[in-house]
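Hey, quick one: can you model this chain's 3D structure?
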Amino acid sequence: MNKSKELLFSTPFVNTMIIIGIFLTICSICTIIGNLLVVLAIGLVKKLRTPSNFLIVSLAVSDLLVGLLVQPLATLRELYGYWPFGEGMCDMFISFDVLMCTASILNLCAISIDRYLAITRPLRYAAKRTPKRMMIMILIVWLFSALISIPPMFGFKEPFVTGLCEYSSNIIYQIYATCGAFYIPLIVMLILYGRILILARNMAHADAKQQRSLVSSNWVCPKLPPVKKRNSRHQNESKAVKTLGIIMGCFCLCWLPFFIIAVSFILKIIIIIGIILY
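Sure thing. Here's the predicted structure for all 278 residues.
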């Protein structure tokens, strides 16, 4: 008996699980600390407490709650190899997971809308970008996230089996959740960031053309300060666009494989249903 236990605890499988456990724990800690620092920085530094940064706080809060409520339970499930809790905890885990992850994605979508309006309508949108309106936008984000996460608690879920905690495979809910939580926000973000990129390039070309014309004129000196200011502004906008591009790339890299698998699962079910009905 003792020999079998020694063999069990010395297997590569156990060593692998320990490594996975350490890695997932580090990820959880980094998620919590990183997002907590963002929230504290914006909350404590007066200069950062701008309406546009409210969305950043909302995004950080959603990711912070993932680190606090979702990742620890997911780590335990991974280490045990089964769900060690009951049905109630399973329902809460899945609902929190869907809620926080959807809120994170929709917050990114809201940030893209905010950046697009700030760049394309700088004067009009600056007057409308009040704390109250940003709070309404955040409220809408969380409301839509809740609407996507709640259905499994009202029947759209798998029958609970001891040791298993599975996401709903109901085809109607799968289509509703994947479209609402990922594909529609993804399309919106790609369109808006694409238009922002085109606009940034057009502004850069127009500014370069204007600068060349000023250099060739006889009254260059009086006009240099505003050109420098515009150049500085365009450089800042260009950096913002590059940052947004990196965010979009990471977003697609992290989420696209998961939702491609979800869509393939939906297509398989549709094909099976079609074969049965035929």
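One thing worth noting: Confidence is low (pLDDT under 50) at residues 1-5.
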